[in-house]
UniProtKB/TrEMBL annotation:
This protein's record includes keyword DNA-binding: yes
Protein name in UniProt: Transcriptional regulator, AraC family
PANTHER family referenced in this protein's UniProt entry, alphabetically: ARAC-FAMILY TRANSCRIPTIONAL REGULATOR, HTH-TYPE TRANSCRIPTIONAL ACTIVATOR RHAS
Signal peptide (UniProt feature, chain positions): none
Domain HTH araC/xylS-type: 227-324
C-alpha cells in the first residue's frame, strides 16, 4: 500500500489549505470567538458525503487555540507521531493509532507538534448517516447512539468519543485501506467500499471500547428501538406513517409517538417533516431540479407550503439556499 507516498503528495496541499483557512475565517473568529468549517470548504474532494485530508504541519509560533466546529462529524486518526486536541474545558493528547470521533457542534482546536507527525481528518457528513450509514450501524449501539443523539438532539448527546490505540493491527489496516480507497478516485475507487470499511471500523472500535471500559452490551440497548425507527423514517420519509411503523416494528402507534417525543423532543409529524426538509436541502445542493420538483421528490405535495417550511427551518428560501451553495462551490 502506497500510503506514505500519498502522505507526501498531500503535505503541500495541507499547508496551503491551512494558510487559506486562517485568512478566510479571521472575521468569524473576531466576531464570535470561533469559526465553522464546511465539509466542502476550499479544495476538499467530497465523495458521497465523505472527505479525507491530511492535517497541516505544526505551527511555527505558539499561539492560543483557535477554536472551530464543523457541519460534519470529524474522525481524527493518528497514522504516525501524535497531536493535541484542545476542547474548551479539557485537552486530549493523541498518540499513534488513536482515534477521536467528534460531533459537529463541539468546539475544539487541533494541532500537531512535530514535522514528522501524520494525522488524518476523516470528515463524515450528516446526510451520509441519515441516508445510508445508520442502516449499516443498526447493530452498533455505541456509534449509532452517538450519531443519532446529535442528529435529533436527544438528551444523552456526547461531544466526542475517544478510542486510545488498542495496538490492534486490524484497526490500522482498516483505516489505511479506507484512506487509500478514498484517494483512489479512479474506476477502481468505490464509495460503497468506503462506507462498508467505515462500518467495519466502527464495529471494531465499539467492541474495543466496550472491552477497555468494561461496558456490557445491554447498557447501549435503551435507545435501540428508536434508532431503528429513525433510520427507517429517514430512508422512507416520503411514504412513512405510524401505521407502517406499527406493522414493521411491532410496537403500537402510541408507543412509537411517545418514544419519539420523549427522546427527540419532536412529534412524529415534525420528525418526518424535518427528514423531508433535509432531503430537499441535499437535492437543492446537488442538482438543478426546479423547486416544484424538489418539493415533490422530498415528499411535499404543495411547493409553496414546502418553501415556507424550508425558510422557517433554514432561514433562506429554497432558491436562495441553492444560490448560496453555488457561490460557495
Amino acid at each position: 500500500m502506497q500510503i506514505d507516498y500519498l502522505i507526501e503528495s498531500e503535505r503541500e496541499k495541507a499547508v496551503r489549505l491551512g494558510h487559506t483557512a486562517s485568512k478566510k475565517y479571521i472575521q468569524q473568529i473576531q466576531k464570535y470567538g470561533f469559526f465553522t468549517v464546511s465539509i466542502e470548504h476550499e479544495e476538499n474532494a467530497v465523495i458521497n458525503g465523505i472527505s479525507i485530508v491530511l492535517h497541516g504541519p505544526p505551527m511555527k509560533q505558539k499561539r492560543p487555540p483557535l477554536f472551530h466546529n464543523h457541519d460534519y462529524y470529524e474522525m481524527v486518526y493518528v497514522y504516525r507521531g501524535g497531536c493535541v486536541n484542545n476542547f474548551r474545558d479539557q485537552e486530549v493528547i493523541l498518540s499513534q493509532g488513536d482515534v477521536l470521533l467528534m460531533n459537529p457542534n463541539v468546539l475544539h482546536s487541533i494541532h500537531t507538534l512535530r514535522e514528522e507527525d501524520c494525522v488524518f481528518n476523516i470528515m463524515l457528513s450528516r446526510s451520509l448517516f441519515e441516508e445510508s450509514m445508520l442502516l449499516l450501524l443498526s447493530d452498533n449501539k455505541l456509534l449509532s447512539n452517538f450519531i443519532v443523539s446529535y442528529l435529533y438532539q436527544i438528551n444523552t448527546s456526547q461531544e466526542f468519543l475517544y478510542f486510545p490505540s488498542p495496538k490492534n493491527e486490524q484497526v490500522d489496516d482498516i483505516v489505511t485501506n479506507l484512506i487509500y480507497e478514498f484517494s483512489d478516485r479512479g474506476p477502481t475507487g468505490s464509495a460503497s467500499v468506503v462506507q462498508h470499511l467505515l462500518a467495519v471500523l466502527f464495529s471494531l472500535l465499539a467492541r474495543i471500547y466496550a472491552e477497555q471500559n468494561q461496558i456490557h452490551t445491554d447498557m447501549h440497548t435503551k435507545l435501540s428501538p428508536l434508532l431503528d425507527i429513525i433510520s427507517y423514517i429517514n430512508q422512507n420519509s416520503r411514504t412513512v406513517s405510524l401505521a407502517v411503523l406499527e406493522e414493521k416494528f411491532s410496537y403500537s402507534a402510541g408507543y412509537i409517538s411517545r418514544l419519539i417525543k420523549q427522546h427527540c423532543g419532536q412529534s412524529f409529524t415534525q420528525l418526518v417533516q424535518n427528514a423531508k426538509l433535509q432531503r430537499a436541502r441535499e437535492i437543492l445542493k446537488n442538482t438543478g431540479t426546479s423547486v416544484v420538483q424538489v418539493a415533490e421528490e422530498a415528499g411535499f405535495q404543495d411547493s409553496q407550503y414546502f418553501s415556507r417550511l424550508f425558510k422557517e427551518k433554514f432561514g433562506l428560501t429554497p432558491s436562495q439556499y441553492r444560490k448560496l451553495c453555488q457561490e460557495q462551490a
